[in-house]
Amino acid sequence: MKIRFEERKDLKEKPTGNLGFGKYQTDYMFVMDYEEGQGWHDARIVPYGPIEFDPASMVLHYAQETFEGMKAYKAKDGRILLFRPEMNARRFINSNKRLSMPIIEEDDFVQAVEEIVRVEKDWIPTGEGESLYIRPYMFATEKAIGVHPSHSYKFIIICSPVGAYYPEGVNPVKIYVEDEFVRATVGGTGFTKCGGNYAGSLAAQVKAEALGYTQVLWLDGVERKYVEEVGSMNVMFEINDTIITAPTEGTVLPGVTRDSILHILRDWGYKVEERHLAIDDLMKAGHDGTLQEAWGTGTAAVISPIGELYYKGDVVQINDFRTGALTQKIYDTLTGIQWGDLEDTYGWTHEVK
Ligand SMILES: *Cc1c(COP(=O)(O)O)cnc(C)c1O
């Protein structure tokens, strides 16, 4: 894929201090257009800035939008590393197919990510836990009000230097188990990364925050009985020395972090079960002391220990609201690989040269 480059004269000042998450954007963005009959064309890296599109653009009415989230890390020896970018490329293909949107070939996706990261390498922050967050996304641009798959799309990649995802850092979070709204059902779009999934989930998030909880734990969409995932993270529980996480059967997002952690845990000899776990059994385990640790997993936060669960007025604390030893060990191992501090025996890191 040929990518043209449009230089800007005035580079932005790089932020210092607490970067937050997604507050700052870099100097450039990758953009590519799709037109039915013509396919993807005009791949370019251009100055970051507002884009113009028609008020009738279909994404604004029917929400054909998909996205990805990944990071670039700067190792102490100066290498620039991506983490399993081909997994994001394949997931993006699956999301786009489900939303009746055109796909981007795996190689082109990875090339576009590499190219924008190469251009923005000076934006990769090097403080503890800091990285360059990469947000590829696609949306429908056809001017039309009738409901049908759009005939034109834009694919954009923006980058954002980020610190730790949670203001609290690697400290336990309080999770609200949602018993009214649902995020996904079998046959729906739960396994895709699409904006629509999030739009529908915000009401629960607002409810949770009003009660002093950070995120929502979703139950299955049919019986509201089985644990699925947390907000923007997959979720794992250690009960009686066994790690339990929901299977990815269409309603749960197949996380890259989830997959990586399951590999690591199995290598360490842990018993791992990808199965449905009833919320009643989880709360019971919380009360009788067999629930040892719980954590969420995702690119943004990497791992997020869960210190408290609230379900229909019932509250359990996990590991006395402290980060568990296993949670910490997984965090240290995975971030060690991602930031290039530990040897990568899995072949997961992908150097941008
Ligand atoms: C992105 C996302 C995750 C985590 O996936 P990673 O690939 O590990 O970042 C989990 N759940 C939802 C709903 C997500 O959107």
Helix and strand arrangement:
Elements: E1 4-5, E2 28-35, E3 39-47, H1 59-62, E4 65-67, E5 70-74, E6 80-83, H2 85-98, H3 106-119, E7 131-140, E8 152-162, E9 173-177, H4 195-199, H5 202-210, E10 215-219, E11 227-230, E12 233-239, E13 242-245, H6 256-267, E14 271-274, H7 279-288, E15 291-298, E16 302-311, E17 314-317, H8 325-338, E18 349-352
Parallel strand pairs: 1-3, 9-10, 9-16, 13-14
Antiparallel strand pairs: 2-3, 2-8, 4-7, 5-6, 5-7, 6-18, 7-8, 10-11, 11-12, 12-13, 12-15, 15-16, 16-17
Helix pairs in contact: 2-3
The chain binds pyridoxal-5'-phosphate (PLP).
Modified residues (N6-(pyridoxal phosphate)lysine): 193
Catalytic activity: L-leucine + 2-oxoglutarate = 4-methyl-2-oxopentanoate + L-glutamate; L-valine + 2-oxoglutarate = 3-methyl-2-oxobutanoate + L-glutamate; L-isoleucine + 2-oxoglutarate = (S)-3-methyl-2-oxopentanoate + L-glutamate
Pfam families: Aminotran_4
